[in-house]
Specification:
2 domains, 7-stranded mixed sheet, 11 helices
């Protein structure tokens, strides 16, 4: 396979870039390099370019998405992991590593990061990213969509995790109740009325269930936070991806449930994460 320099200098590359740019692809050069390097030959390349020009997400064409430096298998009909969500992973990894360092100074049980749960997992990217950054974690991923669970199975199994199908916590094994050290959630948070403003490749190809967060975008956040206390271990953490606009609402929900919360934002990634901690393991709902 020719290197990036040769690909970029080829007439075929220039032609593909031109077609992608004309179709409105912002990163036409990067996409052209990927299509040329991954296609098995001219016929497949031509087919792929034609599909991309019509708006099919690049990740569906390639069959994978890059996330946290890893290749995640992605199939049509499954939410495509975004770069902004790498903030959720990095914050989770930092917390788990910190808890391991603290445990090594205070207890004899310092060898395991404990149970990590990835709710609304889609392709499983978040959980896989966390488990890759903190080896030894007991990973459980879950999603309500059978297509997502089928797609994510190989991704999650690659880091020794398990994936379950069901509606939020109902998908999880009962034995995890009260044992979850870190609960990572990238639930839908786009307000229903704002779905029409999303890029066409998202609103036309990705499942609505993975995008629609209800009237104010917080429907799933309410449900996740309401039951988090039942599943978190002592001093366990709940991390929920949000947006700049909605982070205050998510934080307010956590505080109202008895869970101190803070918000982290990355300008570089354009990512926002709200982090809550369960004091003593089981949060006490504010009256």
């Amino acid at each position: 396979m020719p290197g990036p320099e040769l690909l970029s200098a080829s007439p075929t590359f220039a032609h593909v870039v031109s077609r992608l740019r004309a179709a409105g692809c912002v990163f036409a050069e990067d996409e052209a390099r990927l299509l040329l390097s991954e296609a098995s030959g001219p016929a497949e390349l031509s087919e792929w370019v034609a599909r991309r020009v019509t708006g099919v997400p690049l990740e569906y064409i390639l069959g994978w998405a890059e996330f946290c430096g890893l290749r995640m298998a992605v199939e049509p009909g499954v939410f495509v992991p975004r770069r902004r969500t790498e903030l959720l992973v990095s914050e989770a990894v930092t917390l788990l590593r910190g808890s391991l360092a603290t445990a090594s100074c205070t207890t004899t049980d310092a060898s395991s990061p404990g149970v990590v749960v990835d709710l609304c997992c889609g392709s499983g990217a978040v959980g896989v990213g966390i488990a890759s950054g903190v080896p030894g974690a007991e990973l459980h991923s879950a999603d309500i969509d059978p297509v997502a669970v089928s797609c994510g199975r190989a991704n999650v199994a690659g880091v020794g995790g398990q994936i379950h199908q069901g509606d939020l916590y109902s998908a999880l094994p009962a034995g995890l109740r009260g044992r979850v050290r870190l609960l990572a959630v990238n639930a839908p948070y786009v307000p229903t009325g704002a779905l029409r403003t999303m890029p066409p490749e998202a609103r036309n190809y990705e499942p609505r269930v993975s995008l629609d967060g209800g009237a104010d975008g917080l429907d799933l956040h309410r449900r996740v936070i309401a039951e988090a206390a039942e599943w978190l271990a002592p001093n366990g953490h709940l991390l929920i991806e949000s947006s700049k606009r909605q982070a205050a609402g998510t934080s307010t929900l956590m505080v109202a449930s008895g869970m101190p919360a803070r918000t982290v934002h990355s300008e570089e990634l354009d990512g926002t994460v709200v982090i809550g901690v369960a004091a003593g393991g089981r949060t006490v709902r504010a009256v």
